[in-house]
From TrEMBL, chain A:
<protein>
    <submittedName>
        <fullName>Putative Ras-related protein Rab7</fullName>
    </submittedName>
</protein>
<dbReference type="GO" id="GO:0005525">
    <property type="term" value="F:GTP binding"/>
</dbReference>
<dbReference type="InterPro" id="IPR001806">
    <property type="entry name" value="Small_GTPase"/>
</dbReference>
<dbReference type="GO" id="GO:0003924">
    <property type="term" value="F:GTPase activity"/>
</dbReference>
<comment type="similarity">
    <text>Belongs to the small GTPase superfamily. Rab family.</text>
</comment>
<dbReference type="Pfam" id="PF00071">
    <property type="entry name" value="Ras"/>
</dbReference>
<dbReference type="InterPro" id="IPR005225">
    <property type="entry name" value="Small_GTP-bd"/>
</dbReference>
<dbReference type="InterPro" id="IPR027417">
    <property type="entry name" value="P-loop_NTPase"/>
</dbReference>
<keyword id="KW-0449">Lipoprotein</keyword>
Automatic annotation (TrEMBL), chain B:
<feature type="region of interest" description="Disordered">
    <location>
        <begin position="784"/>
        <end position="804"/>
    </location>
</feature>
<feature type="compositionally biased region" description="Low complexity">
    <location>
        <begin position="745"/>
        <end position="767"/>
    </location>
</feature>
<dbReference type="InterPro" id="IPR000195">
    <property type="entry name" value="Rab-GAP-TBC_dom"/>
</dbReference>
<feature type="domain" description="Rab-GAP TBC">
    <location>
        <begin position="427"/>
        <end position="655"/>
    </location>
</feature>
<dbReference type="InterPro" id="IPR035969">
    <property type="entry name" value="Rab-GAP_TBC_sf"/>
</dbReference>
<feature type="region of interest" description="Disordered">
    <location>
        <begin position="1"/>
        <end position="21"/>
    </location>
</feature>
<dbReference type="GO" id="GO:0005770">
    <property type="term" value="C:late endosome"/>
</dbReference>
<keyword id="KW-0343">GTPase activation</keyword>
<dbReference type="GO" id="GO:0016192">
    <property type="term" value="P:vesicle-mediated transport"/>
</dbReference>
Length: 216, 804
């Protein structure tokens, strides 16, 4: 099923279409990060995201042209149950918190678990997550989560890549997404290599040949 | 005697503009002070069926009545010798309302109708009705000049009674009138006479002779009656050339459609030739059908398996899933996880359920491929007609609003429906909003006096202050360390975060010149303004009023326009409470309200536009998630500020449906159906496209289109009910479940009877009107049922509702 999805996501201009999901508490800056990365813009007047939306961006990863489809979702827990509609087929999940908000950091683990439940990737242990601590532009006195603590968390959870960013000042955003793209691509390739032997062989055979047809 | 009517200098558009409702009232008011009106023709035992139960049927008379022309009006509008259609009234009166005039009606019923009446019979003028039929009494009369069309359905096998529905030029439908021919003395007599004369009990076109024919015959003596070429059951009254073009000689809008129509036409004539491709089509349908069913079952089984058996499932989650009773006691995210699991299961179940009790059968959709092409062109024309009637879509200004209220008592002097009709079609001027919104949002009862409202508002103000005080003065919550304090501060943070990003482009919310009252707030360095602070207070206070919901994103979007219009916190608060009565289901923890609406939308699209639905289904988009935002906050993010105000007040009227917002969704979808069907093939593409419509949708045409779609929906349901042998209720009957299918009627060949509503030509089995669909006919709003103990909790402030 998931490999069928991948094929459909193929874009004629680029080699791969990578699906990235941004998760995290309401107000940590998910929409801002996405907009800074894709449109190089920051607006102080974003509205709370309702439902879900995505932006796409074409990037070169090691000489390969990939299209990233970055999904931005509503941050309130109550709406997360909607995720099932668009988590499927994700290649990377970005967990965002606000370094000035302790609670948004504490919920990261739950966001991670929740993603795994809904997206149900083949191998949960190897699925790529990237953690971002946003809003480092806010003055130091307000910071609630020390860098060290965040890094300890990322190490303990399977050496997750960790970035501290400011979507407002465009600090580290590009760098974070470069890693996101790279890891997503690796995930995509790993999945293709492993193949999908587990289920629905009929569908996969048909789709597999279709994929080969358009890959060249 | 003219059987074929030669039209007088045909009434121009400006004439219709002149003869709006007010003037017609005055005409009848005039005659009612005089001697009465002429009863030209009448027919007895014409029933209104207000409910599905036969015992509720109301017997009455349909009558064609001539009233005196209004004295002051220019009499030159109709040439001598003819009757101005504005003078003619088509009326229905229950037997019980006739009083002493009953005998006259019986007498006129039995007169020979083969010619124009020779003698004048006077009866009391019938009551005037403004159109809608939901006002208790079903009697009505409508000037013939105001009739746009008649929907005529002769009796057929499986449906004993023929019926007529009158559609006014204003777009109103009157209750369906059922002709109980077997009880009607005149119809029995006329039928007998016919048989005696021609030995043919059938009418001219080979159809059974029935009462409705007579009504058409009466009208033909005075006005032009044209049967629509496109929809055979529609008869247009004094149609304009545009009407004729659209309903009669269908213009060749596109060559393909014309070709298909021609093909459909020719295949109808040669039934044998049809058989083979038909069977072939069915065979292909079966294949797709099986294939798709297989995919669905696989999907849902997989979802369930993934949840229960996935080795990667975190152990806590598995535990939660196994012990559903324990879950509510878990902390925030554990219960959130349960909800999402439930949601996921619910979706899977729902989609399976939907497929087993779909609106259309898949074969039916296949069958429609050829015939449905012209449908939406007809809709365009209908929408065009709705748009034309000028005055109804005029803004309600303060002067007009004030004229509806008694100067001294402040009591409403016209019907609530009339007010709602005006607001629904015209919208409120800025100055009227402050006056009208408290009624629309149930702060004030419509039947109150000025003094009663003042008293009510005083107590509401006190109550607002009390509710606000319950957190404002509660230091244990504002500063305390306990659970209640934690919850309250969490709520405050959520609210603050959203208020600071709600409608900041609107002048009153823009300023940041006031220092933030709370130095610990993340906004303390930015500054705030008094209106933002009021918004925060109101949302926090709403938690005191509704102690179970908690703040949910989107609520600040709902409050902002209300507050901006009133700029009075207590009034805005209670208006918001009224709005939340109907919006609360959007914010429920289990998302059941949102899901129900998305399901209803899914079924609505399937019923109204099966081909588009089929395309969306192929694109894995029938979850309709791309309408989530639009439905959650009623298009707040799609339209600009002033359009949102206009749209919301129209929706608040419940004028046509308590869920008219779903028809807005359908209208938006229909507007873009070609692009969607030609270019969008996957869920992400559909979602992106719909999301990006934000800021591009033209409101007025959308409202008109939604209204046209509603009428079309109503007709479709009626047609389906009729096909099922189910009486068409004159007023909406929510939540009636149809269980029996109508196979018996489709298996019997019935020459001469009209084809089912949807299929132009080929026999398509009718749609299934599901509960969610039927509920769309109701003008009631759907409120969240309050548990008893939730009410009892009132006053138990500081209660911690179930956490997210």
């Amino acid at each position: 099923m998931s490999s069928r999805k991948k094929v459909m996501l193929k874009n004629k201009n680029s080699d791969y279409k990578l699906k990235v999901i941004i998760l995290g508490d309401s107000g940590v800056g998910k929409t801002s990060l996405m907009n800074q990365y894709v449109n190089k813009k920051f607006s102080a007047s974003y509205k709370a995201t309702i439902g879900a939306d995505f932006l796409t961006k074409e990037v070169l990863v090691d000489d390969r042209l990939v299209t990233m489809q970055i999904w931005d979702t509503a941050g309130q827990e109550r709406f997360q149950s909607l995720g099932v509609a668009f988590y499927r087929g994700a290649d990377c999940c970005v967990l965002v918190y606000d370094v000035n908000n302790q609670k948004s950091f504490e919920t990261l683990e739950s966001w991670r678990d929740e993603f795994l439940v809904q997206a149900s990737p083949r191998d949960a242990d190897s699925f790529p997550f990237v953690v971002i601590g946003n809003k480092i532009d806010v003055d130091d006195g307000k910071r609630q989560v020390p860098q060290k603590r965040a890094m300890t968390f990322c190490q303990a959870n399977g050496n997750l890549p960790y970035f501290e960013t400011s979507a407002k000042e465009a600090i580290n955003v590009e760098q974070a997404f470069e890693v996101i793209a790279r890891n997503a691509l690796a995930q995509e390739e790993a999945e293709e290599y492993t193949g999908d032997f587990g289920s629905s062989t009929i569908v996969d055979i048909g789709v597999g040949s279709e994929r080969e047809g358009c890959a060249c | 005697m003219p059987d074929e009517y030669t039209p007088p200098a045909s009434p121009t558009a400006s004439y219709y503009d002149l003869s709006d409702d007010d003037e017609d009232y005055s005409t009848i008011t005039h005659t009612s002070t005089g001697r009465g009106v002429k009863l030209l023709y009448t027919k007895s035992k014409v029933y209104v069926h207000p409910t599905p139960s036969a015992k509720d049927n109301i017997p009455g008379f349909i009558a064609l009545i001539q009233q005196k022309p209004p004295p002051s009006e220019n009499t030159s509008s109709a040439p001598p010798g003819t009757v101005d259609p504005a003078q003619l009234l088509l009326a229905w009166l229950p037997e019980s309302a006739l009083g002493s005039a009953y005998d006259t009606y019986v007498k006129v019923d039995l007169l020979d109708t083969s010619s124009t009446p020779k003698q004048t019979y006077l009866v009391p003028p019938p009551p005037v009705s403004s159109g809608t039929s939901s006002l208790g009494s079903y009697s009505f009369s409508v000037p013939v000049s105001q009739i746009y069309s008649l929907l005529v359905r002769p009796p057929s096998l499986g449906w004993w009674w023929g019926s007529i529905v009158i559609n006014s030029r204003g777009g109103d439908s009157f209750p369906a009138l059922f002709f109980h021919d077997s009880e009607c003395a005149s119809t029995i007599a006329q039928g007998r006479a016919r048989t005696a004369k021609t030995f043919d009990p059938f009418g001219e076109s080979g159809e059974l002779f029935w009462g409705g024919d007579e009504v058409l015959r009466w009208l033909k003596r005075y006005v032009k009656v044209e049967r629509s070429e496109v929809e055979k059951s529609v008869y247009l009254i004094n149609p304009s050339s545009d009407d004729l073009l659209s309903f009669g000689q269908k213009p060749v809008i596109d060559a393909m459609a014309a070709k298909r129509n021609a093909e459909a036409g020719s295949s109808r004539n040669s039934a044998v030739a049809v058989m083979d491709p038909f069977t072939k089509a069915i065979k292909t349908a079966r294949w797709t059908l099986l294939e798709q069913f297989a995919r669905v079952t696989q999907f849902s089984r997989q979802t369930a398996n993934n949840l229960m058996d996935n080795p990667n499932l975190p152990p806590q989650v598995r535990k939660l899933l196994r012990n559903p009773d324990v879950i509510t006691l878990q902390d925030d995210f554990d219960s959130a996880r349960l909800y999402l699991a439930r949601w996921a299961m619910g979706i899977a179940e729902q989609s399976e359920k939907e497929r087993s009790q779909i609106v259309w059968k898949r074969e039916d959709i296949m069958e429609m491929e050829d015939s449905a092409v012209g449908e939406f062109e007809i809709l365009d024309i209908e929408a065009g007609n709705l748009r034309i009637d000028g005055d109804r879509r005029k803004l309600v200004e303060l002067k007009e609003w004030d004229s509806w209220w008694n100067k001294t008592t402040g009591r409403l002097e016209i019907t609530v429906d009339e007010v709602k009709e005006r607001i629904f079609h015209g919208g409120c001027d800025q100055a009227v909003r402050k006056e009208a919104w408290p009624f629309l949002l149930e702060v004030y009862p419509w039947d109150s006096t000025k003094d009663e409202r003042a008293a009510l508002m005083n107590s509401r103000r006190d109550e607002y202050v009390r509710l606000k005080g319950s957190w404002w003065d509660d230091l244990s919550r504002r500063e305390g360390q306990g659970e209640a304090g934690e919850y309250w501060r969490d709520q405050k943070n959520r609210i603050e975060k959203d208020v600071h990003r709600t409608d900041r482009n609107i002048a009153i919310f823009a300023g940041e010149d006031t220092p933030h009252p709370d130095p610990d707030s993340q906004y303390s360095t930015i500054g705030t303004n008094v209106h933002l602070e009021q918004m925060k207070d109101m949302l926090l206070t709403y938690n005191e009023y509704n102690t179970t919901l908690g703040y949910v994103q989107g609520m600040s979007d709902l409050l902002a326009p209300i507050y901006a219009v009133f700029q009075d916190d207590a009034m805005a608060f209670w208006a918001f409470v009224g709005f939340m009565e109907r919006m609360e289901r959007n914010f429920l923890r289990d998302q059941s309200g949102m899901r129900a609406q998305l399901v209803a939308l899914n079924q609505l699209v399937m019923l109204m536009d099966p081909l588009l639905w089929k395309h969306l289904d192929k694109a894995e988009s029938t979850n309709f998630f791309f309408f989530f935002r639009m439905i959650l906050v009623w298009y707040k993010r799609e339209f600009d500020w002033s359009d949102v105000l206009r749209l919301w007040e129209a929706l608040w009227t419940n004028y046509l449906s308590g869920q008219f917002h779903l028809f807005i969704a359908l209208a938006i979808l229909e507007r873009h159906r070609t692009v969607i069907m030609d270019h969008l093939e996957h869920f992400d593409e559909v979602l992106k496209y719909i999301n990006e419509l934000s800021g591009t949708i033209e409101l007025n045409s959308t409202l008109v289109r939604a209204e046209a779609l509603f009428y079309k929906f109503q007709r479709t349901v009626e047609a389906s009910d009729r096909k099922n042998g189910f009486p068409s209720p004159g007023t909406p009957q929510p939540m009636v479940r149809l269980t029996h299918r109508r196979s018996e009627s489709s298996s019997v060949s019935s020459p001469g009877f009209p084809a089912p509503a949807a299929g132009k030509g080929k026999a398509v089995d009718g749609p299934e009107i599901t509960e969610p669909l039927r509920a769309l006919l109701s003008r009631e709003i759907l409120r969240v049922e309050k548990k008893k103990d939730a009410q009892a909790e009132e006053g138990g402030k500081g209660k911690t509702p179930v956490r997210e």
